[in-house]
Amino acid sequence: MSENLAYIESGIWIAKGIGEKDKFYLNSNIFINDNIETGKLKGIVSLISLMEAIDVIRARITSKTDRTILNGMNEKRRVEYLKGHTDEKIRILLRYLRTKEAENKILFADFTIVDLNKIYVNSFNYLRHYFGNIPFYYKCGKCWKDFPHYEYKGIGNIDVLHALLAKEYFCNLFITTDRDFRDLQGSPYFPDLQFEVISPTT
Questions:
Q1: What is the pLDDT of residues 116-142, one digit of tens each?
Q2: Does any domain span residue 54?
Q3: What span, in angstroms and rounded, lies between the C-alpha atoms of 184 and 1?
Q4: I need a labelling partner for 55 at 20 to 30 A (CA). Which of 10, 18, 49, 119 fits?
């Protein structure tokens, strides 16, 4: 295909949905403004990426909301409060994506044109020969307390599935915030797919 297509993975849409509090927001926005908004690239959005983004936005808003705000509420009120904030963020993100679709700057991937069973089998076969890295850490990655432990770092089934979808949709570029995707660069499974990792703002 002559058109430059970029598969935009969920991390970019998570940053867009969360907004300025997300560490990838600034650089993700720069990429979108320089490439998608200008028409230099057309973005491909899969429903899997979108569902992942919605799940993470919900979880992130819940975990990052100031505890003192929620402590004075009963369970029902907490749910209403967090659901309201989450729904608003998701509405804004979906409105943006629909606008860009109408402007022909992004396409929502159509699952009816790909063989999903073949993609799942290929994902499984790829990971039979891949495990990732096992670095040693002194701190917990979530709470940052001292906790000497080994940790798995690398791609998983859903990650490979994203890359295989990008290949099926004839994408030239795969845009992500996840450094683990670098492990796929140069793989014979993805000879024509360039993986670009968006860095967090320091």
A1: 788 888 888 887 877 777 777 777 666
A2: yes
A3: 22
A4: 119
pLDDT, mean of residues 27-53: 94
C-alpha–C-alpha distance, residues 52 and 58, integer Å: 10
| 3-state helix/strand/coil string of 121-166 | HHHHHHHHCCCCECCEEEECCCCCCEEEEECCECCCHHHHHHHHHH
In a domain, 122, yes or no: no
**Taking a C-beta distance cutoff of 8 angstroms, is the pair 45, 14 a contact?**
no
CATH code of the domain covering residue 95: 3.40.50
**Prediction pTM value:** 0.84
Amino acid letter, residue 111: F
- Number of structural domains (the chain) is 1
SS3 60: helix
Query: Which residue range(s) make up the domain with 165?
Result: 5-110+157-197
Residue 45, domain member (yes or no): yes
97: its two tokens: 């994506």
Say how far apart CA 195 and CA 199 lie, in whole Å: 13
